Amino acid sequence: MGLTFNSHYFMKDISNSVVFLADNKTPQMKQPEIIHLPKIEDPRGNLSIIEEENHIPFKIERVYWIYDVPGGQMRGGHAFKMQEEMIVALSGSFDVVVDDGIVKHTFSLNRSYYGLYLPSGLWRQMQNFSTNSLAMVLSSTAYSECDYIREYSEFLKYSGL
Ligand code: TYD
């Protein structure tokens, strides 16, 4: 059975560290989800915040960002065995297609106060980058090529499919 993608059902409230389904009772862990980050509005300009193990459910080991993406190009196109991550469109917009081997779901990121949390073990591809978009990735692990699954057939095998 495929993963249930919950982005349409709830947003993680900034004051809660546990995520709940729409019924507000069932804890839901390790699912892709859009996390609504704090946004402190100010006439001088807005401010948003990410604290590890508070707004995201892991310790941040690495930060990287993707920028100057030419029109029509895609990034990603692989899965991680261990890495959990949060992807934020700090500027502009792009889509993240998340695939568990059975179900694909497209998350559109276009606000700098939304973070897409992704657990490990999912195939993900980033596409439809707008001009001047800036994608920040917060990762739970240091870089290791061994953590990548770059062949889709290998990903299906790894997922037991
Ligand atoms: P990769 O993760 O494959 O990029 P994308 O998934 O966006 O297409 O990384 C591209 C290259 O950069 C690859 O050769 C590995 C290298 N790289 C590092 O050296 N350190 C890092 O932290 C990352 C993310 C990539």
Give a brief description.
By secondary structure, the protein is mainly beta. It contains one helix and twelve strands, in the order ββββββββββββα.
Please specify the SSE layout and strand pairing.
Layout: E1 33-36, E2 39-40, E3 47-48, E4 62-66, E5 75-80, E6 85-91, E7 94-99, E8 104-109, E9 114-118, E10 123-127, E11 134-139, E12 148-149, H1 152-158
Antiparallel strand pairs: 1-9, 2-3, 4-11, 5-10, 5-12, 6-9, 6-11, 7-8, 7-10
Bound molecules: thymidine-5'-diphosphate.
Features:
1 helix, 5-stranded antiparallel beta sheet, mainly beta, 35% strand, 4% helix, 12 strands, binds thymidine-5'-diphosphate, globular, 161 residues
Number of beta strands: 12
Question: What's the average pLDDT?
Answer: 87
Q: Which regions contain 5 or more consecutive residues with pLDDT less than 50?
A: 6-27
Give, in order, the helices and strands: EEEEEEEEEEEEH
Whole-number radius of gyration? Answer: 16 Å
Explain what this protein looks like in three dimensions.
The chain is mainly beta and 161 residues long. It contains one helix and twelve strands, in the order ββββββββββββα. The protein has one helix at 152-158; strands at 33-36, 39-40, 47-48, 62-66, 75-80, 85-91, 94-99, 104-109, 114-118, 123-127, 134-139, 148-149. A five-stranded antiparallel β-sheet has the order 1-9-6-11-4, with no helix packed on it. The longest helix has 7 residues, at 152-158. The radius of gyration is 16 Å and the shape is globular. Mean pLDDT is 87; it is low at 6-27. Thymidine-5'-diphosphate is lined by residues 62, 64, 66, 75-76, 78, 143.
